[in-house]
Amino acid sequence: MAGSKSGNDADLRDRVVSVRQVRNPAMVESRASLANISGAVVLAGAGKMGNALLTGWLARGLDPKRLVVIEPYPSDDVRALASRGIRLNPTEETGEAAALVIAVKPQTFGDTGPALRPLLGRSTLVVSIMAGTTIAKLDMVCGGNIVRAMPNTPAAIGRGITVAIAATSVNDKQHAMADALLRATGAVEWIDDEALMDAVTAVSGSGPAYVFLLAEELARAGVSAGLPADLAAKLARETVAGSGELLHRSDLDAATLRRNVTSPGGTTAAALDILMGEQGLKDLMARAVAAATKRSRELAK
Ligand SMILES: NC(=O)C1=CN([C@@H]2O[C@H](COP(=O)(O)OP(=O)(O)OC[C@H]3O[C@@H](n4cnc5c(N)ncnc54)[C@H](OP(=O)(O)O)[C@@H]3O)[C@@H](O)[C@H]2O)C=CC1
Ligand SMILES: O=C(O)[C@@H]1CCC=N1
């Protein structure tokens, strides 16, 4: 029996921890391509997402001297980057940028966008990460060879995912540059139907917030169940992070990984009866993603 039990354990281990080697040839490639960018990369807007991109680029070897950051109220972190050679709010002419990455709020772009025009030459690549802001609007407000992209904040640690679409005026060289800038922060999916961008924004752009909310609420529920607050926060954080890492490394899909936690008649099944019941997470998530998709469409107006 013992033999068969350890056989089962081995099976289970194979199923649960079927870990693929973390290889990221794209990362190596993007490092090379980032080094190949000649000319300035200008980031307009170094708020939360702009800063995440900046951190990702620098970590993956983009020469700080190539970076120009335009940000009216730079955070201390962004100010500190100036000592590494980044040009922050330069007063002298920067000339035409090789790439301009626009990370200002979509609601302000109509006012702030036209001021970016002097940075654009005929070959300048424009990458916009603004939610809801269409290629047509970008073209109208500032022009350029436009790639519309939707990254997410795990970009700061090279574990983001970006969905991108290129306007027809974008040539192969500009496409490769956009791919290198985006891929330096994680995975990239190119699409050719811009209408998908609203749902993309609702799933992966906003998605990290849903996951962080899960950690917050799991901790809160732990406190309600009697745990000290600091222990509950640690358990929730490590559980979300560890589960995310397992999902990342495993070949198994999320549903199988979930089933592997759920012993018949056990504690997880009791919890999932609530979470997967009527008006449970399925319904909540569908409503949340629909609301975000609708908001993205509204931002386009
Ligand atoms: N946060 C996220 O997870 C994601 C955000 N995005 C997109 O990224 C963009 C930025 O979002 P987020 O970082 O959250 O927002 P933030 O408000 O944190 O960042 C925007 C930054 O742009 C600055 N800014 C305002 N005017 C100008 C200007 N004229 N020139 C340069 N910078 C200016 C803002 O300054 P001030 O605050 O003083 O106005 C602010 O620091 C948005 O378009 C959003 O849709 C996309 C994917 C994910
Ligand atoms: O909340 C927002 O509008 C932005 C876009 C996706 C994530 N943050």
Helix/strand-derived category reads: alpha/beta
Helix share bin: 40-55%
Helices, by number, come to 13
Which class of the largest domain in CATH terms? Alpha Beta
**Secondary-structure arrangement, i.e. CATH architecture of the largest domain:** 3-Layer(aba) Sandwich
Organism: Nitrobacter winogradskyi (strain ATCC 25391 / DSM 10237 / CIP 104748 / NCIMB 11846 / Nb-255)
Subcellular location: Cytoplasm
Domain Pyrroline-5-carboxylate reductase catalytic N-terminal: 43-132
InterPro entries: 6-PGluconate_DH-like_C_sf (IPR008927), NAD(P)-bd_dom_sf (IPR036291), P5C_Rdtase_cat_N (IPR028939), P5CR_dimer (IPR029036), Pyrroline-COOH_reductase (IPR000304)
What does this structure look like?
The chain is an alpha/beta fold and 301 residues long. The protein folds into 2 domains: 25-197, Rossmann fold (3-Layer(aba) Sandwich); 207-299, ProC C-terminal domain-like (ProC C-terminal domain-like fold). Helices cover 50% and strands 12% of the residues. The protein contains 13 helices and 8 strands. It has helices spanning 2-16, 25-36, 48-59, 76-81, 109-112, 135-141, 172-183, 197-205, 207-224, 229-249, 254-261, 267-275, 281-299, and strands spanning 41-44, 67-70, 87-88, 99-102, 125-128, 145-150, 160-166, 186-190. It has an 8-stranded mixed beta sheet, with helices on both faces. Helix 2 crosses helix 7 (172-183), helix 8 crosses helix 13 and helix 9 (207-224) packs across helix 10 (229-249). The chain is elongated and about 65 Å long. 32% of the residues are buried. Residues 131, 201, 205-206 line the site of (2S)-3,4-dihydro-2H-pyrrole-2-carboxylic acid (A1CAB).
